[in-house]
Design the sequence.
């Protein structure tokens, strides 16, 4: 409601600026301030008290005294008063009753579903809420329309706020709400969460054994019968005249229908259909694998195999025979696999078993060298069992078999007790000593003949039948410290059968060599006065081994003068320095007596008288004084005399020869042209 007033003054001035106020309310029940007037627009509305307590039955009419002033309501303004009568009637602006609509209504659209009405001044209506745009609309008359089919599975109810506003957009009252509930229509088929299932069932499962439960879901309203689902077995591949499986109509539980799954196919594919009351349906497949159980023991086709003949010299790894036990369980499964074992007759582990897991065939293979003289017949008990336990039945006589093997004797060659003999002999020992005895045996008890191979210098011999190895001559370690040869043992009845062994003879060293001085020292000299660090380096050698000749000792003769004049200083095991022990010695050739001894006990020694030249030296260390001739050494004069005497003797011999020739062949007279004949000459 709006109060209007008119002022004839210029509307663009304060003279026409009108202000409204409420002076009085009659009656003042149930509150004294039931109404309010807008000072600018003059619109009359309810106060909070009025809105909450206004009741037409308590008071059906109110008289309001209203004043209007110009000049914006200032003190000097003109004013006028008036009376406003307010009739109180029932309120028509209220939430409409909830509406229930069936989903997927056939139309035509739009379909009116409800209506609201504002009983006062003109208003404009609008709808707000969570729903697709234009799904619901409202007319100027307040009629609410549905413009498209509803889907309960998408949204099962709507809360629509209805707003009433004045033409200028101001809200006239609080919005009211329309609740729209969507009823279910059976428009969804039941579906399985997966299109294919896998499960297993044991071969010996009994009737009623649960295999799997399949559950389909229906998106229709769970509070209705539209979601009730019925299951059925629609197909089975491969087919079987027996009813092997069953699915519960209400629960979807799949169970074994047959008394047993024994003897059936290893796998079945079931088609399960889920259907609702309207007949809407969908299907899934269930792949059922029948698990084989070990209910059949392996059995041999024969109780005995053989006898087989095997040569005594058969090679290790040779196959004697191959057999197989048959198992009726599923081929390739754990229950079908057979483990074989030799229960008896193979205590020495002469044979072994090799199983082919693809065929379950077992091969009996030779695992050790045969010996006819030790064992010439084998009776083996072979058993067959599965690696997994039997669930029914037990292993009986058919799961064992006997294998007979005869060994054929072969003439075998001799065998030596060792493949390598090592012998030690002291050098210089008397020939003919037995240094080793070669031992051999013949499996067939034939005699054995021994011989040597590789002893090219014939230092050794061996007894033809005794095998005694002897030295033929004394051995010298310094000549050769090791001898290697081969001993051959032949079958006395068949020389093509033989065995051989390597013999190594080590010669033990004996201290039978004295150390010797090595090198030429005649051109060497020592300077006098003595030069520091000048010495003759003397070298020695001992042909014996290091045990005896390892370290050689030099020592001067125990003569005070010798030890005063000379000094020996060891360098290593075989060399020593000889130097002057005094500052000055007269230039001359001196004989230095010393001994070289080895390290054996007792030692062997060599006595040396070494001529040593001592001379004065220039600054470069060259000897300047000629050394004296040693006694017994030839001089230049004596050498020249010997040479001249030799030439004289040769000349005399030549003269005698020519003289004799001239007497034996005188030239013939008167025959100047006579032919010459060769001379004969003898001396």
Sequence:
């Amino acid at each position: 409601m709006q109060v209007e007033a008119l002022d004839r003054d210029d509307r663009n001035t304060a003279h026409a600026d009108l202000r409204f106020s409420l002076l009085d309310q009659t009656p003042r029940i149930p509150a004294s301030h039931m109404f309010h007037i807008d000072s600018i627009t003059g619109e009359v509305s309810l106060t909070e008290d009025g809105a909450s307590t206004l009741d037409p039955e308590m008071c059906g009419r109110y008289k309001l005294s209203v004043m209007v002033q110009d000049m914006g309501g200032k003190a000097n303004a003109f004013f006028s008063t008036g009376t406003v009568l307010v009739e109180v009637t029932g309120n028509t602006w209220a939430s409409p009753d909830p509406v229930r609509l069936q989903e997927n209504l056939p139309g035509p659209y739009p379909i009116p579903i409800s209506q609201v009405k504002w009983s006062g001044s003109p208003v404009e209506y609008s709808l707000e809420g969570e729903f697709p745009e234009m799904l619901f609309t409202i007319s100027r008359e307040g009629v609410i329309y549905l413009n498209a089919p509803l889907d309960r599975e998408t949204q099962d109810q709507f809360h629509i706020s209805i707003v009433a506003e004045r033409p200028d957009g101001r809200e006239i009252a609080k919005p009211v709400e329309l609740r729209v509930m969507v009823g279910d229509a059976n428009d969804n088929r039941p579906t399985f969460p997966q299109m294919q299932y896998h499960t297993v069932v044991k071969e010996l499962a009994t009737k009623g054994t649960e295999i799997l439960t399949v559950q389909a879901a229906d998106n229709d309203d769970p509070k209705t019968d539209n979601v009730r689902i019925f299951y059925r077995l629609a197909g089975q591949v491969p087919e079987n005249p027996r009813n092997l499986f069953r699915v519960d109509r209400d629960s979807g539980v799949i169970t074994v229908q047959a008394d047993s799954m024994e003897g059936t196919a290893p796998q079945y594919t079931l088609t399960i259909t889920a259907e609702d009351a309207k007949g809407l349906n969908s299907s899934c497949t269930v792949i059922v694998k029948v698990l084989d159980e070990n209910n059949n023991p392996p059995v041999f086709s024969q109780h005995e195999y053989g006898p087989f003949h095997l040569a005594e010299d058969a090679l290790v790894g040779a196959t004697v025979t191959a057999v197989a036990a048959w198992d009726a369980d599923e081929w390739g499964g754990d229950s079908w696999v057979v483990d074989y074992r030799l229960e008896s007759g193979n205590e020495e582990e002469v044979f072994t078993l090799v199983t082919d897991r693809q065929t379950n065939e077992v091969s009996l293979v030779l695992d050790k060298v045969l010996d006819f003289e030790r064992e010439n017949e084998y009776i083996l008990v072979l058993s067959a069992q599965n690696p997994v336990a039997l669930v029914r039945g037990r292993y009986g006589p058919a799961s064992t078999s006997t294998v007979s093997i005869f060994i054929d004797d072969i003439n075998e060659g001799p065998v030596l007790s060792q493949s390598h003999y090592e012998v030690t002999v002291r050098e210089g020992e008397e020939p003919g000593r037995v240094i080793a005895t070669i031992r051999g045996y013949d499996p067939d008890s034939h005699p054995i003949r021994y011989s040597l191979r590789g002893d090219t210098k014939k230092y050794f011999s061996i007894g033809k039948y005794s095998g005694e190895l002897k030295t033929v001559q004394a051995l010298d370690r310094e000549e050769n410290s090791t001898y290697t040869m081969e001993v051959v043992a032949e079958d006395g009845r068949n020389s093509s059968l033989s065995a051989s062994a390597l013999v190594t003879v080590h010669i033990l060293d004996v201290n039978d060599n004295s150390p010797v001085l090595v090198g030429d020292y005649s051109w060497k000299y020592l300077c006098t006065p003595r030069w520091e660090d000048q010495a003759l380096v003397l070298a020695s050698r001992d042909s014996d081994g290091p045990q005896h000749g390892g370290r050689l000792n030099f020592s001067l003769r125990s003569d005070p003068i010798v030890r005063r004049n000379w000094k020996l200083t060891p360098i290593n095991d075989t060399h020593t320095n000889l130097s002057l022990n005094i500052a000055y010695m007269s230039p001359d050739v001196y004989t230095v007596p010393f001994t070289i001894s080895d390290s054996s006990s007792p030692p062997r020694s060599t006595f040396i008288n070494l001529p040593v030249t001592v001379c004065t030296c220039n600054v470069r260390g060259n000897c300047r004084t000629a050394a004296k001739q040693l006694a017994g050494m030839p001089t230049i004069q004596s050498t020249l005399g010997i040479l001249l005497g030799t030439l004289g003797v040769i000349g005399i011999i030549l003269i005698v020869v020519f003289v004799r020739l001239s007497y034996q062949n005188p030239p013939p007279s008167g025959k100047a042209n006579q032919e010459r004949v060769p001379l004969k000459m003898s001396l």
Notes: Residues 14-87 form a domain with the Immunoglobulin-like fold (CATH 2.60.40.60). The mean pLDDT is 86.
